[in-house]
What we know:
It is built from 8 helices and 11 strands. It is α/β, with parallel strands linked by helices. Helix 1 (10-22) links the parallel strand 1 and strand 2 (26-30). Helix 6 (163-173) crosses helix 7 and helix 6 (163-173) packs across helix 8. The longest helix has 18 residues, at 113-130. The relative contact order is 0.10.
Amino acid sequence: MNILIIEDDQRIADFLQRGLRAEGMRVQVARNGRDGLDLARAAWKEQSAGGETTLVILDIMLGDITGLEVCQTLRAAQVELPILVLTALSTVEDRVAGLRLGADDYLCKPFDFEELLARIEALRRRGRGLKAAATTVLRVADLELDRTTMKVTRAGKVVALTVRELALLELLMSAPGRLFSRERILANVWGVNEDPLTNIVDVYIGRLRNKIDTGAVPLIHTQRGLGYRLEADPAAARPPAD
């Protein structure tokens, strides 16, 4: 996924750029609204031609034109890139204005990076849902998850999972081989940044293993102290993703 950051605060832009690149995303940065508009239009043209999906992270208080003007201009030109507003303006009126002008989500500064990642994931899933369902079925080795029916099978046999177990499995299967920290899992599956039960992620990983990996080649793997990944072949060593 490509992320376009439109942010005139160099410190924040650099922080976002480093963090998102560490997550495996391609990142572009525009330091003002007009450059952001040009890059967004180019990204939409590329995406419409079958290229990489782009998500816009947009500040409101820019040096030349406001982020609200950027958002309004893009929507008027039928540029349908997902837009996540990231700003210090936190009143209800500010949030309503941003959403009414076409923003898809609104996050206030200061922000938690894990929450930002969770919101990006949510927007990406929403975008996939609006497309023809080419990715309705996730597959890793002989494990399958049908996102339409939320039916899970391993080697053709149905695996019964709870709603929370399904959400956890979907997250892991959405990026095979990618390392997910406990914090990232909490933010995506439980919508919290701190573990309310101290070891809830470990408990649910254990439940998934008992239902999916028992009597079969293990697909869920632990990187001690860092997190979990789901993949068919963990032999190749990888640097941690987050």
